[in-house]
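Backbone geometry tokens:
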Amino acid sequence: MKRAVPLAITFLTGFFLVVSFFIPHEPFGELEQRLLIWFAIVSGFTMLLGVDNLVRAHVRRVTRRPAGWGHSVALIVGLVVTVVLGVIGFVRYGSPFHIQSPFMFLYTYSIIPLQATMFALLAFFIASASYRAFRARNTVATLLLVSAVIVMLGRVPIGSASSHVFPAAQEWIMNYPQLAAKRGIQIGAALGAVSMSLRILLGIERSYLS
């Protein structure tokens, strides 16, 4: 019974959503909007549960004090400060995203620089991964290396200044071979999503119950 009820709810919800997508008339059209509202409400509660789980896990780390427990302290303090400033901005200005809100001050002078730092560090990881991936070990790797060099030269000023061939070759690579591979991956991902959805609706995939 504990498994039958969630499976039935999942099947009925998914079935009505699929029907309302293909038949956007009453009563299915209104049902889709109502289910989307319910989904937003459930998502809000799951976010609260996620925050509670996050706080509990890091409080346990602070209590036990393993290696790196200071990062947990920084996370808890940052979470509390962000929530408090958001509430203050909502009370004083009607929205935490008001330009004079203390939350926006924190976002502008703390969160944005941290994001910029993270992406700046990510560029070095990408460069390192590119160096390892573009080694001409075989024919396929050599083709990848040559294509990457042509694309990079076609997108930087030095390439277009050297020859008009690089921009034209870069456009051809991006519009034909790259786009064909991208569409193939998207079609495969879409078919995988459809198959997984059918498995969930039919009760074959039950990993979400564990």
Summary: The longest helix spans residues 28-64. The CA atoms of residues 14 and 197 lie 9 Å apart.
